[in-house]
Hints:
Domain EGF-like: 87-119
CATH topology of the largest domain: Laminin
Number of strands: 13
Radius of gyration: 19 Å
Organism: Hypotaenidia okinawae
Keywords: Disulfide bond, EGF-like domain, Glycoprotein, Secreted, Signal
InterPro entries: EGF (IPR000742), FBN_EGF_N (IPR049388), Fibrillin_U_N (IPR040872), GAS-SHBG-PROS (IPR051145)
Number of domains: 2
Largest sheet: 3 strands, antiparallel
Protein name: Fibrillin 2
CATH architecture of the largest domain: Ribbon
Order of helices and strands: EEEEEHEEEEEEEEH
Shape: elongated
Distance between the termini: 31 Å
Strand order of the largest sheet: 3-4-5
Helix content: under 10%
Structural class: mainly beta
Number of helices: 2
Amino acid sequence: RFHSYCCPGWKTLPGGNQCIVPICRNSCGDGFCSRPNMCTCASGHVSPTCGSKSLAEQQCSIRCMNGGTCMDDRCQCQKGYVGTYCGQPVCENGCQNGGRCIGPNRCACVYGFTGPRCERAAMLGKEQIKKHLTIR
């Protein structure tokens, strides 16, 4: 059976297999965990911890990702993210040719494609071209 593991300080989205969610040991308070053990605070500065959340947010039983805020046990997502926990990035124009949306308007392209939306075929070397032209 195949098992994948994340590098220290990273985890996957629920049900996902890409290690794209940073883990912070301390509470990010009114900010969000932007890289392992570092918070981006509401003021914009980066620090191991941020100021506290409001009373309504402290009483939430769920945690929102990517800077989303919890109100009445529901996440209100920042621009560029959707989902129950704000864990799903949005690529407004989509990703083409099998590319996957990995961040707000950021696509990860499959081999052979490039461009902001994976819309262009990448230049292949002579050996790859020969392999693709070989009749099977």
